[in-house]
Every structure is written in C-alpha cells, then in structure tokens.
Specification:
The complex is a heterotrimer of chains A (294), B (494) and C (287).
Chain A lengths: L8 H12 L5 H13 L1 E4 L7 H12 L13 E4 L4 H7 L6 E5 L10 H14 L3 E5 L2 H5 L3 H15 L3 E5 L2 H4 L2 H13 L4 E3 L11 H18 L4 E3 L7 H15 L11 E3 L2 H14 L12
Parallel strand pairs in A: 1-2, 1-8, 2-3, 3-4, 4-5, 5-6, 6-7
Helix pairs in contact in A: 1-10, 2-11, 2-12, 5-7, 9-10, 10-11
Chain B lengths: L5 E4 L2 E3 L17 E2 L1 E3 L2 E3 L5 E7 L4 E8 L2 H17 L6 H17 L1 H12 L3 H22 L3 H4 L5 E3 L2 E5 L5 H14 L3 E5 L6 H12 L7 E3 L4 H9 L5 E5 L2 H10 L6 E5 L5 E4 L5 H12 L12 E5 H16 L19 H17 L2 E4 L14 E4 L6 H4 L6 E7 L2 H9 L6 E5 L3 H10 L4 E4 L18 E2 L12 E3 L5
Chain C lengths: L12 E3 L2 E3 L6 E5 L6 E5 L3 H20 L2 H17 L1 H10 L4 H21 L3 H5 L1 E2 L6 E9 L2 E5 L7 H12 L3 E5 L6 H11 L8 E4 L3 H10 L5 E4 L4 H11 L5 E4 L13 H6 L1 E9 L3
Parallel strand pairs in C: 7-8, 7-10, 8-9, 10-11
Antiparallel strand pairs in C: 1-2, 3-4, 5-6, 6-12
Helix pairs in contact in C: 2-4, 3-4, 4-6, 8-9
Classes of the chains: A alpha/beta (294), B alpha/beta (494), C alpha/beta (287).
C-alpha cells in the first residue's frame, strides 16, 4: 500500500473553524445532546481502579440521571483487562457494551505474543469491544508493514469483538502522519479508528479528528466499508462534543451519527451533557451538585 | 429552512440545524439618513431620496438622501476647507490618533455593524461578523500607524499629501471598502468625499456616526449617498484632486476618459475572472475547501473570485465529486441565521445578470449542477452552481458573472494551464494548489495577476497589497504600496 | 473629624505577570526630594533576576508567535492604560523633584511613544524584509526575527520616558525583557507594572526589577540565556564589564547612554532592528 495523501494543516484548521462556527440551538441542540450521551464510552483507566470503582461506574452508566426520565444510555464502559469480568457482570441487564483496552495499553511497548494473549484474555472475559494501541515507534521509523501486520493479528484474536485501533495522534506530530496511520489501520482491519489513549498530554484535537473523518470518507468511497471513529481525551464540554457531531455530519453525512459508527471516549462529558439537557428543559443554568459523581 | 431533527426509522437519521438567528434588538437604523457633510448630517439640496432595501426579503430598511450636483459641490468644498485649514497642518502623529479612535469604535460596535451589513447587503452574518467588520477595524489600525512614519515608506523620497480624494465604492463589501479607501487617504493627510454604493449605504452612514463620535475635525470625511449619477458628478468635480474607484471595468474606463483633460490622479480596482489551478499533487480536501471559499464566499460577489477552475485531469473526477458533496452541505437562507453559508444576491439587477449567464452557460453546453436548497419566497437568491466541461471560448469562462457560478475546465500539464490562466484581459488574482514549493514560486512568477494565492484563496490583510494587472485596475490597496496612490512624491513631477 | 490615614502603596517587583517581593527580603529606602516621604523598594537579588529570565524565556515562544497586528493592539492598550493614569504618573514625577510642566510633558511623550511603536508592529517587517535578486533560480527572502530575551538597564535620568523608549521597540519586535528600574528613582518603573498588568500583556513578556546596579549588572550581562543587553547609562567601568561579559555567549550589547529621549529623533524603527536577527531562506523556482 502506498500512503501519499498530504494534508495542509492551515487549510484543515480553517475548515475546522468554519465547522465550529455553526450555531446549534433549540430542537437540533436537544437531539444533539441526547445523541452525544448515547455515544459516550464511559471510561476508567487508572492504576488504582478496583472492583468497587468499576461497579460504581457501571451503575452510573445505567442510571445517568434517573430524575430526568427518557434519557438514552451510554454506549459502553471502557476498562483495563483485569476489570472486564466485573464490568460485564455489573452491566448484565443492560445493553451497554463492555470495552477493554489491550496490547500493552497505553505504550504498546511489549512483545507481540503477550499483546495477542491479552486480547484473547479480554475477549474470553466477555469484552465486546477491544481498544488496541498501534506501535508508534515502528510507525515513525517507517516500518509500516510491521504495524499493519500487528493490527491484522489483533483483529483475528478479537474474534467477534469489534476492534478499535488507537493511533495516539499526539505522538504522530503531523496531520500527514495521522492520515497515513488512519488509512493503514483501516486497510489492516480496524472497525473503528480512535485518536488517543488519554494518557499523554495531547489527545483528540479538532484538526486530527477532521483528518481522520476525511480518511474514513475516502476509504468508504473506495471500498464501500463504513469504519467508525472515536475521539478520546480532552472532550469534557457538551459544546465541543456537539461541534464534533457537526463535523461528522458535514464530512461523512447523517449515516455516521450513531453509536455504531461514532463514540466519545470521555469521563466527565456525561455530567456536562446532563446539565445541558436539564437546562434546555428547565431554562436555568445547573450546578454539578445535583448530578451524581461516579 | 431547517426542520426539526428527527429519527425517521430506527436506522435513518436526519439531523438538520434549527434556525439560529442573530439578534437585532440591540441595533439601531434610522428611518431616514441625510448627507454627512462638514461633520453634520444635512438635508440634500436636491430634495431627493431613495430607499435602501433588504435583499433577503425586499423590505425597506431606510430612506436615504440622494446627492445632486450642489450637494456634491458642498461636500467637496467642505473637504477642501478642512484640508486647507486643519488637516494638512495637523501634526502627523495626532492624525494617526484619530484613525486609532475610529478603529476602536468599529471594534466596540462590531456586532451592530455586522448585523446592519447583512441586512443591507444580503451577506451571511457569519461573514460580516468574522471577516468584514474585523478587517475594517484592522485597516484603520494599520494605516493609523503610518501617519507619522511616511518618511520610511518610500526610500530616497519624501512625500506629501495630495488634497481632496473623491472615493466611490461598491456594494459587495460596503464597510470594508469604505475602510480600504478612507484609512490610507487620511493617514497620508488627505481629506475625503466618499460615495457608497446605492444598494448598500447603511454601514457607511453608521461609519459617519462613528466618525462624529471620534471627534474627527468636521469636513475631513464627508459621506454622500446617491446613485451612479452622483458618482459621475463627484468624479468630474473640479476641486477633487484624486479619484479612487472600485467597481466594474466598464465604469473604470469611463472614469479614465472623463478625467483625461484634468490633472486628477486616479487609482482603480476593477473586475476580474481569476484562474484557480488545482494540481494533482495538491492536498485534495483543503483544495476543495479552497474552491468553496474562492467562488461561494460572499455569494461570488467578489472581484477576485476564483471563477475559472482548472483541475488537472488525473484528479478531476475526485475533486468534482468532493466539490458537489461539499456544496450539498452549504446552507442557503436568511443572512441573519448564523448557520447560513449562502446569503441573498445583493439586488434584483444583479440576480437578473446572473440568471442571464446561467442561461448562456446552459446554451453554450457545459454540464450544469446546482446544489439543492429551499429557496425563500421573497428576496433574491441563486444556488451555488457549477458548469463542468467548459472551455476558454465559453462566454461564462470569459466574462465576469459576479455570482456563485463556477466554470470548470481540465488541464494536462502546468504550462498549458498557465497560458490559459493568462489568456484574459483581466489580471486581478489567481490561485495555485500544489504540495511542491518550487512549483508555487514558478507559477507565481508566470501568472500575470496582482495577487497570487498558493494553497489558499480569498485571504486579505491590511498589510498585504491588493490590486490588478491589465484591465483589473491600476495601483494597489493595502500594505506599503497602498500609500502611494495618496501622496505626491516631492522629487518627482508625476 | 479625624483626618483619614493614607494607605501607602507597597512597591513590589513585577515578574511573570505577578507582583512579588524579592526572595532576598531586602529593601532600599528612597526619600522624596519634594516632601521627604519615604518609600521602601525591593532590593532585587540575582535569584530574582534568574527567575525573571526563566519566565522571560518561556514567554518568548508565545509572544513571538503573536501576529504583529496583535502586538500592536497590546502596545496601543498600554498607551490607553497609561493615558488613563496620567495624573498618577505626573504626581509621581513631581515627587521625584520635577516641575509640574515638565512632568506633564514627560508623561504625554511617553504615551505618544507607545502609540508610535504600536504603529510599527506590523510595518517594520515590510521595511526591513527583502526578496533578494540572486543570480540562480532560487526564491531568496530575508526577514527579521526577534533575538529572544533582552536585559535592560534603564536610563538613570529619565524615569518614565527613558525606560518606555527602550522597552517598547524591544517588545514590539517580539522579544521579552527583564528591566532594571532606574536605581535612584524607581517609582515610575514600578508603577508602570500596574499599567502593564491591565494591558493584556502576556505574563513574562515584561519583567521589572528594582535594585542596585552594582549588585546586578554582572548577572544582567553574564547570564548565558539572555540574548541581548541594552545599557542606557552606567559608569565606564560597568560599561566595560558589560561588553566583556557579553562575550561569554556573544550577547548583542547596545549602549544607548548617549541618547536624549526627549528628542523626537530618539524614536525610530532601527531601535526595533537592534534586537532582531535576519534570517534568509532559499527555495528553488521550477516545476
């Protein structure tokens, strides 16, 4: 495969600015807020996670804000491999999916065998979705076949579980690289391409998200396959999440505005969206004191 | 326009944006505006008025004075007196301070000005708010700084002011064009009589109010509204020392003829039919966005619009299909809706002209494509339009349409397209899209146009000179070069 | 009725956009020649200077990336803020022994000087950049870039106009500065920090220290992370030390001590260019 698409960073930023100048109000805002909620992968990836913490998060996922009936559920819970079984059990009477990181998350700096074993382990424990990391060092030194091969092997190990491929765009530095990595991941078997691990200081940025969405669109035009996208990290405010929905709509079309094809990797976003939904309903600005923190 | 968002079936989503109107309750438009002469608003001696209407709904916004010969004479004499007694004698740095004040006032009133600009001219509020008004303020800021630094502007030459500048501006960027004209004229020590376009006088009149608020000495800037005849009278007034005109090439030529036997200096910014060249090694998605910005910005009412697109054949079907997809996401409608991309056509007259060219284009045989929009019942509208498979001999490729209409041709090699790009009596601007730096410099060298945009289009800045080769005009506005048309060089007799 | 007691101002250093005391805890006492009132200024230490250079360096990348237009707006705002506090500065100059008339003139000239340099922010590049007509098929262009962190030793006998005249061209050109206030009369320099603080100047771009030049000149001129030093009036022994120390990292050293800041010719764009480097780039022209 030859990856030679170049991205002009200044031009890309201008398109982003124009998309972000859209003003989403009234009914279109309410629809957007509810849709954002349904697309969240509620995430806890801390070294200090425990079964208690995961159980609490899963309860929150199924009971975002019971005082306000009719709210959608989040799409999934995302946890470390050792927490998958607990999450799966806690979510058993819901439609919320269990997603697990794997392949030596977040750095990916371990051998291929242990990565594959880890994937098989989480799938056995019940994960319906696997979030893997690509080998950035290999990518940046030009060993694209190595990276591609790794993704393909992980995809096989996933079995029926969906594979999200994390590009860690904050380490890739240029939009040309983001584009290259996106195309490579899609050609190698990704069901979703994802921006970040959330563990380094730079996570999802608007120009990166736009570049990835454009790569998905071109891949669809070429192959007819719809690949999903997940920006992760740094999305704490509803306004930004809605701006990303606008970006999806104007780049890929309405078809992608579903949790099957678009997710937000976030933790504090859910409560901000809930506050906005309640504000739209009641007319006054809300306080975080009235929304559960889990 | 935008419907409620709904999910029709479980697997079909139809999310439209609700209308998001910019509020108008904080702005003020007078029912009637008089002429701004000698620092005051005065009744026209002509006793004539005309209406300014909102082109998006045909409603009357205000009644505007129409200046006749006596009014123009009064304004020019006020400008001359202000020049002779105050402005030419004032300390340079103090002159600059007035311009800084005007810039600040424009910033303070920016939202009101943006709303009125969109109401009067039809352009989307997003554009007037984010582009027109900030650039207008920036022009005043930029030229304010030159007022006391002219000794550095022209190596080896000292300069002095000319006198009274008669300035005529068009309807496509009303406040911005006023700024482009007034700021350098004042910075170099001249006084001004400005005639705004007939269909868009309002923001110039709000600028007159700002000028009063800035305490600018009376008569330094005079604003006289009227029609084409008013402009002609201004050009021919014997006490005007310099003419600055932006508008059609046709009228520009008439101006040159009518002042031929006078000593009046003139600068002209006229029409264009810019070639926008996309090479196969361009960053494609950004190039497509660049095409959108080049021809659909301001409904194509832009003299430097990239109205002739040349796409390298190897990427033409990809580019055109992406372009159509992008056009389908443009939103046409109420200029005051913050989500509107395509506003109203400025006047019925202009709409008729555009429609005439659409008919010509169809007859000439290019493939025709228009994105689908709900066209409002009242007002003047034209959907974004493409003609593909056109050629140099098509009238729609040769003549300036001044609307959201793009004529597309393919090319094989770069030298072929440069010849075609230059094959026009115009020479205002051009675009080149490629990832290769050396190609940019080579094309820039060979393209006979005053402004070359590489990997971008329709970018403006007060520090950057703008103006055309050939029939697109004479002299430049903006930057250091923008000072030259407003000064006399002390050691040269020209 | 008891007469109200005046709440006296504490004069602090201005580093990284914050008012702080010297880490050394020392002070220098100043007595007004007009009415004998005393003010205790901070006696800045070499550590204060070291900290100021650090923040100056961090602020440089940000300040340098601002457009000329933006920097000009900020300088104009400094002028706005200074103009709105005209009376305060006039009375401070009077306190330092100047006449009312010359104090008013000095403040007004200072305001005008700021406006003057604000106007250069997006123009000096046009005057001093070039496309060079080389004989081979290359596009060759030269343009100025700021030199970096500049340390400044204020003029001794011009307590407001002088140091504004040196700071403005340095910062309008994108540099960040660490300024030693006039040793014998630091009032206006320190009050000027309040003006800066309300002017949208990013933290760390301008840092102002009050202190004794004989303690600090060595450090101002020998710090390896300072790119240029402007000396506006020191004795000849110190002047020699400054140049010798500059050799350590080839610091650009400028002596402005003979400039008369009340002279209108003392403002010009060449003072901006003193703290600029010229960069030249080549690129082929061809297909």
């Amino acid at each position: 495969m030859v990856y030679n698409t170049t991205i002009d960073q200044v031009g890309c930023k201008e398109r982003v600015d124009r998309i972000f100048s859209r003003s989403i109000k009234k009914e279109s805002k309410i629809w957007a807020l509810n849709t954002v909620l349904s697309m969240i992968d509620l995430t806890t990836l801390e070294g200090r996670d425990s079964s208690g913490k995961v159980k609490q998060l899963c309860y929150k996922a199924a009971h975002l804000h019971d005082k306000h009936p009719g709210l959608p559920k989040v799409a999934a819970i995302c946890v470390y491999p050792s927490m998958v079984a607990i999450a799966k059990k806690s979510l058993e009477r819901t439609n919320i999916k269990t997603a697990s990181v794997a392949t030596g998350f977040p750095s990916g700096m371990t051998n291929l065998n242990s990565k594959i074993e880890e994937v098989k382990f989480v799938v056995e424990e019940g994960a319906e979705e696997v979030d893997m990391v690509i080998s950035r060092g290999h990518f940046l030194s030009g060993e694209l076949n190595y990276v591609s091969d790794e993704i393909a092997k992980v995809k096989t190990a996933c079995g029926r579980a969906k594979l999200k491929v994390i590009l860690e765009t904050g380490e890739l530095c240029t939009l040309d690289n983001v584009r290259k990595a996106s195309e490579l991941a899609m050609h190698s078997g990704a069901d979703f391409i994802k921006t970040s691990t959330g563990k380094i200081s730079e996570s999802a940025t608007p120009v990166v998200v736009l570049t990835m969405l454009e790569a998905i669109r071109d891949y669809f035009d070429k192959t007819g396959k719809k690949i999903g996208m997940k920006p992760a990290g740094g999305i704490g405010k509803s306004k930004l999440a809605i701006q990303y929905l606008v970006m999806v709509r104007e780049t890929l079309g309405n078809d992608w505005l579903t949790p099957d094809l678009f997710r937000f990797g976030a933790s504090s976003l859910a409560n901000d969206v809930l506050m906005q939904i309640v504000k739209q309903d009641q007319g006054n600005y809300q306080s975080s004191n009235y929304f559960s923190l889990d | 326009m935008a419907k409620n968002s709904k999910v029709k079936k479980s697997d079909s989503i139809d999310w439209d944006y609700s209308v998001a109107l910019e509020s108008t309750d904080h702005i003020s438009i007078s029912q009637e505006y008089k002429l701004f002469i000698g620092g005051k608003f005065v009744k026209p001696l002509s006793k004539k008025y005309f209406n300014s209407i909102n082109p998006s709904n045909e409603k009357i916004l205000s009644k505007i004075a129409s200046a006749g010969k006596a009014d123009i004479n009064k304004a020019v004499l006020a400008a001359k007196s202000a020049y002779d007694t105050i402005w030419s004698k004032m300390d340079n740095a103090e002159r600059g301070k007035y311009l800084y004040r005007i810039a600040r006032l424009i910033q303070e009133k920016s939202r009101e000005l943006a709303v009125i600009e969109s109401l009067d001219g039809g352009k989307p509020i997003r554009e007037s708010r984010d582009i027109d008004i900030p650039l207008a303020a920036a022009h005043f800021f930029y030229y304010a700084g030159w007022a006391d630094k002219l000794d550095y502007a022209f190596p080896g030459s000292k300069v002095s002011s000319i006198g009274v500048a008669g300035q005529i501006i068009p309807w496509n960027f009303p406040l911005l064009m006023a700024a482009w004209k007034i700021a350098p004229a004042l910075a170099t020590g001249n006084t001004v009589v400005l005639k705004p376009a007939e269909s868009t006088p309002l923001t110039a009149l709000k600028l007159a109010e700002i000028i009063q608020e800035s305490d600018l000495p009376p008569g330094v800037v005079n604003i006289i509204t009227g029609d084409g005849a008013t402009g002609e009278l201004l050009v021919n007034n014997p006490n005007v020392d310099k003419i600055a005109f932006t508008g059609s090439t046709e009228v520009g030529k008439m101006i040159i003829k009518s002042i031929a036997n006078s000593k009046k200096k003139y600068s002209l910014e006229l029409g264009g039919k810019a070639a926008n060249i996309i090479c196969e090694d361009a960053s494609i998605d950004q190039a497509v966005e660049g095409i959108i910005n080049s021809i659909f910005f301001n409904q194509g009412h832009v003299c430097c619009a990239g109205s002739r697109l040349y796409v390298q054949e190897s990427v033409s079907s990809q580019i055109i299909s992406k372009l159509k997809n992008r056009m389908d996401h443009l939103i046409l409608g109420d200029p005051l809706d913050k989500n509107t991309d395509i506003g109203a056509i400025n006047s019925n007259e202009q709409l008729k002209k555009i429609n005439m060219y659409l008919d010509i284009g169809k007859k000439e045989g290019g493939d025709f494509y228009q994105s689908k929009h709900t066209i409002p019942k009242k007002g003047y509208w034209c959907a974004p339009t493409l003609f593909t498979d056109t050629s140099q001999s098509h009238r729609i490729v040769q003549e300036e349409i001044f609307g959201p209409v793009l004529a597309i041709q393919t090319f094989r090699t770069i030298d072929e397209v440069i010849d075609k790009a230059n094959n026009t009596p115009y020479g205002l601007s051009g675009g080149i899209w490629t990832d290769k730096g050396s190609k940019i410099f080579q094309v820039s060298k060979k393209m006979r146009a005053g402004v070359i945009w590489a990997n971008t289009f329709n970018k403006f800045d007060p520090a950057s000179p703008f103006g055309g080769y050939k029939e697109s005009g004479i002299h430049r506005e903006g930057g250091l070069e923008g000072l030259a048309p407003y000064v006399n060089f002390d050691n040269r007799t020209l | 009725m008891t007469k109200k007691l005046h709440i006296k101002k504490t004069y602090k250093l201005y580093i990284d956009g914050k008012f702080c005391r010297t880490e050394s805890g020392r002070y220098m006492q100043w007595i007004s020649p007009k009415d004998n009132q005393t003010i205790n200024f901070c006696r800045a230490s070499r550590k204060d200077f070291r900290n100021a250079v650090q923040v100056s360096r961090s602020a440089f990348n940000k300040w340098n990336s601002f457009s000329g237009y933006n920097r000009g707006q900020i300088l104009y705002r400094i002028a706005e803020m200074l103009d709105s506090r005209k009376e305060q500065f006039i009375s401070e100059l009077i306190l330092q022994g100047k006449s009312k008339k010359s104090s008013k003139e000095e403040v007004e000239m200072s305001i005008d000087r700021l406006v003057y340099y604000a106007g250069w922010s997006d123009k000096y590049q046009q005057i001093f950049s070039r496309v060079n007509p080389v004989a081979t098929p290359y596009f060759n262009f030269s343009y100025p870039e700021p030199t970096g962190v500049v340390s400044i030793i204020s003029p001794k006998d011009s307590h407001l106009l002088g140091f504004i005249s040196v700071i403005a061209p340095a910062i309008v050109g994108g540099n960040t500065v660490v300024v030693l206030a006039p040793e014998d009369n630091p009032l206006c320099a320190i009050s000027f920090s309040e003006v800066l603080h309300s002017s949208d100047v990013p933290s760390g771009v301008i840092n102002i220290l009050s202190g004794l030049s004989n303690e600090l000149i060595d450090h101002f001129s020998s710090h390896m992370d300072v790119n240029a030093i402007i000396n506006c009036g020191v004795d000849s022994k110190d002047a020699e030390l400054i140049v010798k120390n500059s050799s350590l990292n080839v610091k650009r050293a400028f002596d402005y001590s003979s400039i008369n800041w009340t002279n209108p010719d003392s403002q010009d764009p060449y003072l901006i260019m003193d703290c600029q480097e010229i960069k030249t780039t080549w690129h082929p022209i061809g297909y």
